[in-house]
Amino acid sequence: MFQMNAGYFLIQLASEKDKEKVYKEIGQAVRQDANGVKQVAYIGVVDPLNPRVESPEEIRDALVTAAKYIPVDQLGATDDCGFSPFSVDGKPKHGDPDFAREVAQQKMTNRVKGVKMASEVLGV
After folding, report:
1. What is the CA radius of gyration of the chain?
2. Which residues, at least 6 apart from 48, have a Cβ–Cβ distance to it below 8 Å?
3. Mean pLDDT of the 61-80 span
4. Which of 45, 58, 75, 95 has its CA 20 to 30 Å from the CA of residue 19?
C-alpha cells in the first residue's frame, strides 16, 4: 500500500487484535518521500461499530505505542471507518439513533482528548 505515491493513509486499527504488529509493519513501510510527498499513517484509535467508548487514556496509549514504530511526524489518529450510527441503519448495535449519536460524540471527544494527551507525552 505504501508503494503508492499518496500522502496519507487512513488505516482501520482500533478493532485489530495485534495492533503492535501492524504499527511495526507501518513503520517499516511508510515513506519519507513518496515522489516529493511525506506519507502519513492515520491509525484507527476508535471503533465506531462498538458502543464501548474508548477512554482518552486508551487512545493516548495506542498512539504512544504506535510512535515506537512510526515516526511521530508521520503518525495521525482517526476512527476505524466513520460513524454510520448517525443514520438509522441496522449495522451497529447501539440501539436507538439518539443513543448512537451520544456514543459517537463521546468517542470523538475522547479521541481529541487522547490525541492531545499523546502529543504532550511525545513532545509534539
Report:
1. 15
2. 79, 80, 81, 82, 83, 84, 85, 92, 104, 107
3. 96
4. 95
The DSSP H or E segment spanning 97 is helix 97-122
Coil, strand or helix: which one is 48? coil
pLDDT tier at 95, thresholds 50, 70, 90: low
Quote the cell numbers at residue 96: 436507538
The average pLDDT across 41-63 equals 94
- Give residue limits of the domains in the chain: 8-122
> C-alpha cell of 69?
514504530
Return the pLDDT at 93: 57
Cα–Cα distance, 42 to 75 (Å, whole number): 6
Evaluate whether 50 touches 4 at the Cβ level (below 8 Å). no
Residue 104: CB atoms within 10 Å: 22
**Among 78, 69, 98, residue whose Cα is nearest residue 8:** 78
Share of the chain above pLDDT 70, in %: 87
